[in-house]
TrEMBL record:
Signal peptide: 1-24
Keyword annotations of the record: Signal
Protein name: Thiol:disulfide interchange protein DsbD N-terminal domain-containing protein
Thiol:disulfide interchange protein DsbD N-terminal domain residues: 36-150
Keyword Signal among UniProt keywords: yes
Taxonomic placement: Bacteria, Pseudomonadati, Pseudomonadota, Alphaproteobacteria, Rhodobacterales
InterPro entries, per database record: DsbDN
Pfam families: DsbD_N
Amino acid sequence: MMLSPFRLLALATATLLPALAAHAAPTRPQDVVQAEVLPGWRQADGSHVAALRLTLADQWKTYWRAPGDAGIPPSFDWSGSENLTDVTLHWPAPHVFELNGMRTVGYTRELILPLEIRARNADQPISLRSHVMLGVCRDICVPVDLRIDAVLPVTKQPDPTIRAALAAGPLDAEMAGVTNLRCRVEMIPDGLRVTAAFRAPPLGGHELAVFETPDPAVWVSESDTRREAHGVTATADLVPPPGETLALDRSRLRITLIGDRGAVDMLGCPAG
């Protein structure tokens, strides 16, 4: 028996920013974003593919996993779930937005975020309970607290909507034709400066390279990204928390090049 998608209300427990009071656009979180779980299907290896669908009010946006200096990073807590050991998020290629001289990275209108879930017992349903914190923004930002409670049945029928969202993810470096990727690392007073150089087909528009480290406590600046005749060069600063030093593992440094026609994911950056 197929279960219909589970519709959820976006419940806000955080205090809205003061600017909301004077803004004429929708200000209640449930007027700005609605959430729905697409229950998905169980794969042959026992993992389960589902998705979180966020529908945003007109002109509002939400953020990618690395939202930029002016964005609000999303967070996910799956600890209340049952028959679940691990969740991997498969983010679709995001877009870059510019407002008042600042760039943020995220999505407008709709985000379908595929979830790859590992079950303790692959023959049993999964009780998916999650606490999701998001930022949704227009001219101002609303912090939104989503509470997800859904049962994912054992069904083998793939969902074409989720499949399309998986296909919309960034291309990996080899598939995209990235070559000659090298990174130069230098010390700065409070951390490290990393300059990446590589060749990649143009993605259109004002391209932006986003740097990420495995440690979310490391602050990463917006990169200075330039495309020239010899390829792309991007420079960003990595700054650890006060009093800590940063030991950069090049193999786990992630660089995502984002343009109007999609994104390219590069994991690992050798010296050069």
